[in-house]
């Protein structure tokens, strides 16, 4: 008889014992995060009016952070002022969007904000486009602007190398959702302890995102890295089945109201004779889990900027380990 086992059951036990994440959600504070000396933390959320950047900006307001009065938008988008509104707290903030094609204006704005708000009290969030990842990071480093890189894609190895060489403060991760990050950490631990445990198994991966997502899921790539250590399959990123079509997404299980913002992933390991199958799924509708994780990463990084004398590149595991997620 064919036995079907779910890798998710194993991971559930790992996550239950994990010290990374508390199972109970802490109430969100309505008080702005203060740095030493009582200064507020200001966040330049780049990529608005895109939905992920806007959701991150709303989460910042919700978690007691303040938005800078200007932010960077796409090079082909006209300069305009938008109002970011958080429906949970009723907080709002007006932000002028400056195209990336106007670097001098952006530099002058950043310098002015730092002078007004404090050199160490201004940070950035990047939810722009995969093609802009590396140049944007260099722009932040050049302007001494600590950042959280939520945008996936780009040359990730170069991105990290550049920021480490510059000794720049940054949080760089393929996924900002805390439960998903904890799952990835459990998988990495499993792969390290038991490499080749699934030798002879065939690996498959299918992921669905909104059709506006330009690149392959960074989370899928990270999970595949661990699963290929567990198996001896020659599976590569190019073998990931990407779904960017509404009809196909619905067939994959995505609800119609989540088509504009979702992340559905299924990973399958099947034995050579087909008698055993392990399957892992993580499905997210909406953007809230990523937006709030991003805001938490900013708060974590803001504390590091204040307490550390030298910049460093962090990831979401570091954020989890210090209990910096609400």
TrEMBL record:
Molecular function as annotated in GO: 4-hydroxy-tetrahydrodipicolinate reductase; NADPH binding
Q: Name one GO biological process term.
A: diaminopimelate biosynthetic process
Q: Which reaction does it catalyse?
A: (S)-2,3,4,5-tetrahydrodipicolinate + NAD(+) + H2O = (2S,4S)-4-hydroxy-2,3,4,5-tetrahydrodipicolinate + NADH + H(+); (S)-2,3,4,5-tetrahydrodipicolinate + NADP(+) + H2O = (2S,4S)-4-hydroxy-2,3,4,5-tetrahydrodipicolinate + NADPH + H(+)
Alphabetical list of SUPFAM superfamilies matching this protein: NAD(P)-binding Rossmann-fold domains (SSF51735)
What are the Dihydrodipicolinate reductase C-terminal domain coordinates in residue numbering?
Answer: 181-320
GO-annotated cellular components: chloroplast stroma
Q: Which InterPro entries match?
A: DapB_C (IPR022663), DapB_N (IPR000846), DHDPR_bac (IPR023940), Dihydrodipicolinate_Rdtase_pln (IPR011859), NAD(P)-bd_dom_sf (IPR036291)
Report the residue ranges that make up the Dihydrodipicolinate reductase N-terminal domain in this protein: 43-176
Q: Is Glycosyltransferase a UniProt keyword of this protein?
A: no
Q: Where is the signal peptide?
A: 1-19
Q: Which domain of life is it from?
A: Eukaryota
Keyword annotations for this protein, in alphabetical order, are: Amino-acid biosynthesis, Diaminopimelate biosynthesis, Lysine biosynthesis, NAD, NADP, Oxidoreductase, Signal
Query: What are the EC numbers?
Result: 1.17.1.8
Q: What does the record give as its pathway?
A: Amino-acid biosynthesis; L-lysine biosynthesis via DAP pathway; (S)-tetrahydrodipicolinate from L-aspartate: step 4/4
Family assignment? Belongs to the DapB family.
Q: Which NCBIfam families match?
A: dapB_plant
What's the name of the protein? Answer: 4-hydroxy-tetrahydrodipicolinate reductase
| Natural source organism | Cylindrotheca closterium
């Amino acid at each position: 008889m064919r036995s079907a086992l779910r890798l998710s059951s194993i991971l559930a036990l790992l996550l239950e014992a994990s010290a990374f994440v508390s199972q109970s959600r802490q109430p969100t504070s309505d008080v702005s995060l203060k740095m030493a000396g009582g200064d507020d933390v200001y966040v330049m959320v780049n990529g608005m009016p895109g939905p992920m950047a806007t959701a991150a900006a709303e989460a910042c307001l919700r978690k007691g952070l303040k938005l800078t009065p200007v932010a960077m938008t796409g090079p082909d988008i006209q300069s305009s002022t938008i109002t970011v509104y958080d429906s949970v707290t009723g907080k709002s903030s007006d932000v002028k969007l400056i195209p990336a094609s106007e670097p001098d204006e952006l530099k002058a704005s950043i310098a002015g904000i730092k002078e007004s708000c404090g050199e160490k009290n201004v940070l950035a969030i990047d939810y722009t486009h995969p093609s802009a990842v590396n140049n944007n990071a260099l722009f932040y480093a050049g302007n001494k602007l600590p950042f959280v890189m939520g945008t996936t894609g780009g040359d990730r190895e170069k991105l990290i190398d550049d920021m480490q060489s510059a000794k720049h403060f940054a949080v760089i991760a393929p996924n900002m959702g805390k439960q998903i990050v904890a799952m990835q950490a459990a998988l990495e631990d499993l792969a390290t302890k038991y490499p080749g445990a699934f030798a002879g198994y065939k690996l498959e991966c299918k992921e669905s995102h909104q059709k506006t997502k330009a690149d392959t899921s960074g989370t899928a790539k990270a999970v595949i890295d661990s699963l290929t250590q567990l198996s001896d399959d020659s599976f590569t990123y190019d073998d990931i089945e990407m779904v960017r079509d509404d009809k196909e997404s619905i067939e994959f299980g995505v609800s119609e109201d989540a088509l504009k913002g979702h992340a559905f992933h299924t990973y399958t390991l099947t034995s050579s004779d087909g008698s055993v199958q392990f399957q892992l799924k993580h499905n997210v509708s909406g953007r809230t889990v990523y937006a709030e994780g991003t805001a938490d990463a900013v708060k974590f990084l803001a504390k590091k900027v204040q307490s550390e004398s030298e910049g460093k590149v962090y990831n979401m595991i570091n954020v989890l380990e210090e209990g910096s997620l609400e």
